Amino acid sequence: MKGIVIFSGSAHPELADEVCAQLGRERSGARISRFSNDCLQAQLLTNCR
Questions:
Q1: Where are the domains of the chain?
Q2: Quick one: CA dihedral 8, 12, 14, 18, positive or negative?
Q3: Which of 20, 27, 28, 36 has the smallest number of CB atoms closer than 10 Å to its CB?
């Protein structure tokens, strides 16, 4: 699992942390923005291809 990158949203950060701990990986950064019409924008702060 050397090349795996893990992102999470804002709903369950504890679950994402548990998954990362089990896999021995750190959670990659993401910036979540909410708009007034209830839409989201997610910006990944790590390269992924």
A1: 1-49
A2: negative
A3: 36
pLDDT tens-digit profile of 1-49? 678 899 998 899 999 999 999 999 999 999 999 999 999 999 999 988 7
Strand partners, 30: 44
What is the pTM assigned to this prediction? 0.72
> What is the full DSSP assignment across the chain?
-TT--B---SS-HHHHHHHHHHHT-PBPPEEEEE-TTS-EEEEESS---
CB-based contacts of 23, cutoff 8 Å, min separation 6: 1, 4, 6
Nearest to 43 by CA among 32, 22, 6: 32
For CA atoms 29, 44, 47, 20, the dihedral sign is positive
